[in-house]
Specification:
The complex is a heterodimer. Chain A is mainly α. Helices cover 80% and strands 0% of the residues of chain A. In chain A, helix 1 packs antiparallel against helix 2 and helix 2 packs antiparallel against helix 3. Helix content of chain B is 77%, strand content 2%. Classes of the chains: A mainly alpha, B mainly alpha.
C-alpha cells in the first residue's frame, strides 16, 4: 500500500469515527466536534486518493482549502446557534433527543 | 461570449449587496432592494434573451480554463431556475419589507441573509462542476439556517440547530462522493464526468453518498424530520423562501447528476427505490399535513408531500422510452416551478391569515371568510395548484407525469398521483371548512397591509397562469438539457 493510500484509508476511518460520534452523541458540542472529524476525514480522502498513481495534484489542495473555509464558517455558525440555544433553554442537547 | 456580461452578475450582485447591507445602518438595509431587485431582474432577463438568441452556452469566469477557472453553464434548465428564483425572491422581498416592520431585531439581519441566500442559489443553478455545486450548497445552506434562527425563540433556535446538523451531514456525504469521483476520473466538470464515467464500484459508492447527502438536504421522506419545525416555525417570508426555493436546489443537483452519471451507472432498482420513497413522502406528508393544528405546520407538511412528486422523475426516466422520459422531464420541471410559486403563495397567504386572526391555530380561523376574503382567495388559488386541479401548473405537471407513467407501463405511479391529490384536497379543505363556518358576526380580525395580500395573490395567480401557458417555459427548460437534445 502506497503512502497516499494510507492517507485515504485514514480519511475513511476518520469519516466513519466522526459519523459514529455524530449519531451516537447527544451533547451538541460533541456532535459539532464529530462533524469536524468527519470533515477532516473527507479532506484526507480528497487529497490522498487523488494522488494515488498520479503524483501531486494541485486541484484537490485548492478544493481542500475551500472546504476548510466552509467547515470553519459552518462551525462558527453552529457555535453561535448553540450558545443562543443554551442561554434560552439551559440545555446542551436538542429536545426530542433525550 | 458577447451579451453574457450578466451571467457573473447573477451571483456577484447579490454577494456585493449582502456585504453592502451589512455596512449600512439597519434602517437602510430594506431600502437596498430598490437597487438590487431591478438590477437582478434585468440580469435574469438578459440571460434569458441570450439563451433565446444564441442557445445554450458555457461561460468561462474571467476567461480562465477549467479546472483553474470556473465554468458556468447557461442552458434552459439553469435559466428557468434563475427566472423562478428572481420572481419568487423578488416578491418575498417586497412582502418582507412590509412584514418585518413588526419584527425590528429580525429585520436587520434578514436582508444580508437574503442576498447571500440568493447568491448561493444562483451559484448552484449556474455551476458546471460538482465542487462549485458544493460551495453553492454551503453558502445557501448557512444563510438559510441563519434565516430560520432569526425569530430567536427557543423553538426557532432548536429548529435552526436541527436544520444545520442535517445540512452539514448532507454536505459531508456529498463532499466525500465528490472526492471519490475526482480520484477516479480526475475531473470535476459534469460534462467530463458524463464522458468518463463507467460502471464500477467507485462510481457506485460515490453516487450513493451523493444521493444520500442530497436526499437529506431535500428532506425526502424518511429524512424529512428537520423540515416541518424549520419551515413551519420561521418568519413567514423565510418559510416561503425555504419551501419554494431552497429545497429545490439540492433536488436540482440530484437531477443534473442523475442525468450525468445515472444512465451508465445506476441500476433500475435505485430509481424505483427513489420513486417509492417519493410515494411514501406523498402519503406520509399529506396525512401529517391533514393532522396539524397549526396553519403553517400544515403548509410545511404539505411541502414534505409535494417533494415526493419530484422523485417520480427517477423511475420514469430510467430505462424507459425517450418519449416517456421527455414527458417525465417536462412534468417534473413543471411540478418544481408550479410548487415553488404555489407554495410561496400558500405560505404568504397563511401568514396573512395568521396576522388577521392573531393566532396560528387553524381552529381560530372560524368565520374569517366573511371578513378577509382576499387572503383566503390567494390561499385557495395556491391550493388549486397543489391539489392538481385544472388549469393550474400543478395539474399540467401531474398530467404530464401521468402520461409518462402510462407510456412507460408503470401504472403504479398513477395511484400515487391520484391519492396524493385527494390528500392535498383533504388538508386544503380542512382550512376552508374552518374559515367558512359561521362565527361571531363582529369583525375582530386585523387587516393586513395591502402589499402583503397583493404579493400573495400575484404568486398564486402565477401558479395558475403557468399551467395555462405551459408550453413556453417548457420549451426553454428543454434547451440544452441532456434529455431535451434527444
Amino acid at each position: 500500500m502506497s503512502g497516499s493510500l494510507v492517507f485515504a484509508w485514514s480519511g475513511v476511518l476518520l469519516f466513519g469515527l466522526g459519523l459514529f460520534g455524530f449519531i451516537a452523541h447527544r451533547h451538541l458540542l460533541r456532535r459539532l466536534l464529530a462533524f469536524n472529524i468527519m470533515g477532516s476525514g473527507s479532506f484526507l480522502v480528497l487529497v490522498g486518493l487523488a494522488q494515488e498513481g498520479r503524483g501531486v495534484d494541485p486541484v484537490p489542495h485548492a478544493l481542500v482549502i475551500t472546504g476548510i473555509v466552509v467547515a470553519v464558517a459552518s462551525t462558527a455558525l453552529a457555535l453561535v446557534v448553540f450558545r443562543r440555544w443554551y442561554r434560552a433553554s439551559g440545555r446542551t442537547d436538542l429536545p426530542e433527543d433525550t | 461570449m458577447i451579451g453574457l456580461w450578466s451571467v457573473p452578475l447573477l451571483f456577484a450582485l447579490p454577494l456585493a449587496l449582502g456585504i453592502l447591507s451589512l455596512l449600512v445602518v439597519p434602517a437602510w438595509r430594506p431600502r437596498l432592494i430598490f437597487v438590487g431587485l431591478p438590477l437582478l431582474a434585468a440580469a435574469s432577463l438578459d440571460v434569458l434573451a441570450g439563451l433565446a438568441t444564441a442557445g445554450p452556452q458555457v461561460y468561462r469566469l474571467g476567461d480562465w480554463i477549467a479546472p483553474l477557472g470556473i465554468n458556468l453553464v447557461v442552458d434552459g434548465l439553469a435559466v428557468g431556475m434563475i427566472l423562478m428564483t428572481t420572481l419568487v425572491a423578488t416578491l418575498c422581498a417586497l412582502y418582507a419589507r412590509v412584514y418585518l416592520r413588526d419584527h425590528p431585531p429580525a429585520s436587520s439581519f434578514f436582508w444580508p441573509l437574503l442576498w447571500f441566500l440568493w447568491a448561493g442559489m444562483n451559484g448552484i443553478w449556474l455551476a458546471e462542476d460538482i465542487f462549485n455545486l458544493y460551495v453553492g450548497l454551503e453558502v445557501m445552506g448557512l444563510a438559510a439556517v441563519g434565516m430560520v434562527a432569526l425569530r430567536a425563540t427557543p423553538q426557532a433556535l432548536a429548529a435552526a440547530m436541527r436544520y444545520l446538523l442535517a445540512a452539514l451531514l448532507g454536505s459531508l456525504a456529498y463532499l466525500l462522493g465528490v472526492a471519490l469521483l475526482y480520484a477516479a476520473y480526475g475531473t470535476l466538470s459534469m460534462a467530463g464526468l458524463h464522458e468518463a464515467a463507467t460502471n464500477n464500484a467507485t462510481t457506485q459508492v460515490a453516487l450513493a453518498l451523493i444521493i444520500l447527502g442530497l436526499l437529506l438536504k431535500t428532506a425526502l421522506f424518511p429524512l424529512h424530520a428537520w423540515l416541518p419545525p424549520a419551515h413551519g416555525g420561521a418568519l413567514t417570508p423565510v418559510s416561503a423562501l425555504l419551501s419554494a426555493l431552497v429545497i429545490k436546489a439540492s433536488f436540482y443537483i440530484l437531477l443534473r447528476l442523475w442525468l450525468v452519471l445515472g444512465p451508465e451507472v445506476t441500476p433500475e432498482l435505485t430509481a424505483q427505490l427513489l420513486g417509492v420513497l417519493g410515494a411514501g413522502a406523498v402519503f406520509y406528508g399529506g396525512w401529517m399535513a391533514w393532522r396539524q393544528h397549526h396553519l403553517k405546520q400544515l403548509v410545511a407538511y404539505s411541502t414534505v408531500a409535494q417533494i415526493g412528486y419530484l422523485f417520480l422523475f427517477f423511475p420514469l426516466v430510467t430505462n424507459t422510452s425517450p418519449e416517456a422520459a421527455r414527458l417525465a422531464w417536462d412534468g417534473t420541471l413543471m411540478m418544481l416551478v408550479a410548487h415553488a410559486l404555489a407554495k410561496a403563495a400558500l405560505f404568504l397567504s397563511a401568514g396573512n391569515l395568521i396576522l388577521a386572526v392573531g393566532s396560528p391555530q387553524i381552529s381560530h380561523l372560524v368565520g374569517i371568510s366573511r371578513f378577509r376574503p382576499m387572503s383566503l382567495f390567494s390561499f385557495g388559488l395556491a391550493g388549486v395548484s397543489l391539489m392538481g386541479l385544472p388549469p393550474s401548473g400543478g395539474f399540467t405537471a401531474k398530467w404530464l407525469l401521468l402520461h409518462s407513467a402510462i407510456l412507460s407501463g408503470q401504472w403504479w405511479w398513477l395511484i400515487v398521483l391520484f391519492l396524493g391529490g385527494l390528500l392535498s384536497a383533504a388538508y386544503i379543505f380542512k382550512v376552508f371548512r374552518m374559515s367558512f363556518r359561521e362565527g361571531p358576526q363582529i369583525d375582530r380580525s386585523v387587516t393586513p397591509p395591502l402589499t402583503l395580500d397583493v404579493v400573495a395573490l400575484v404568486l398564486a395567480a402565477s401558479a395558475i397562469l403557468i399551467g395555462l401557458f405551459a408550453h413556453l417555459p417548457l420549451h426553454w427548460l428543454r434547451m440544452g438539457s441532456v434529455l431535451g437534445m434527444g
